[in-house]
Amino acid sequence: MPVLVYTSFGEVPEDVRAHFSYPNQPKFLLSFDWFSLLFATSLHQTLSPRIYVLVDDRREPMGALFCGVSRGGSVRRLLSLTNFYSLEYAPSVVRGAPDQDTIVRQLIAHIATERPRWHAIRFSFLNLDTSGSQALSDHLRRAGFGVSPFFQYENWFLPLGGETFQTYFAGRPSQLRNTITRKQKRLEKHHDFSIKVIRQAGQVGELETAVQDFVAVYNASWKQAEPFPSFIPTLAATCASLGVLRLGVCHVGGKPAAGQLWITGGGKAIIYKLAYDEQYADLGVGSVLSREMFRIAIDEDHVDEIDYGVGSEAYKKDWMTSVRRLDGVLALNRRTATGAVLAAVEAARSAMRRGRAPGPRPQTGVVGPGRDPAAVEPR
Hints:
Number of strands: 13
Mean pLDDT: 91
CATH architecture of the largest domain: 3-Layer(aba) Sandwich
Distance between the termini: 39 Å
Number of helices: 11
Helix content: 25-40%
CATH class of the largest domain: Alpha Beta
Order of helices and strands: EHHEEEEHEHEHHEHHEEEHEHEH
Structural class: alpha+beta
Low-confidence stretches: 360-379
């Protein structure tokens, strides 16, 4: 089966694009929609896209790898099309396509035979418990690459078995439940308080206003401003057009106090970004908004899983019940002189790491004193 290679998103034919667009690709974060907006809003500054598409004998797409090529330098590097906005990466496989392992094997076989050869391949945000991600590592090794997996993040999540929000919330720690209940009663009694959740564009300007409110909250929080200001508006607009947006904004006194952007589709709700204005920290607006967003995901969207993004923050244990690893894979081509040198350097570094006592796993968020833990960004 042949592999087609595209070096820009614009040159991908419409029929191929459709096979990998949501909902044909039920995981939004593995879809053409996601990778194209990620590239257009941030990655275009450092990478050139390289999209591999496996087609069958009738030229029907079966699977794809959305990759990027680092610009400049003497080392030829092929990278997963990911950055700090990413939460997962894996082969994008057409719904109903048979034998995922064969799809990945043929994609990797093509990459391994490209000329000039790749010196290094790096895939990030892999859940190696899934067949597609594990197959990437296995087939790189079988193609002759020296493969080194490395830990990146923990990913806390909540598998759901059809329970109601009331049942779920009753099972949370009593301190969390009591605090949120008390805070919400106080908000309703003493403040002009409301929560609005946007799912689609709706009336003219409604989505734009909600996005502006979210950005205002984000900029008034403890977090650094977005390095790519167009990313969030583009993401929200794309998700709204596909019906997977859940953008919640809590207002106090008519002003935005907390915001959460969830992506819900394919039976899964992802808590993508959240923040609150620090001047409202004592009101618990982040926790109260979290409660409502969880209720919508469980009772209205009936999702099978809620994903709390990447990071090992302790507060996630109050909301989630399960955790998995997200790993990266570095594959070095020892059949090239440059790859062999890189492999030797990596082997030396690994030996040094084994000789040192293990340190704490990397974390991407810290809950500071006085902050509302439920409103800290999960990344």
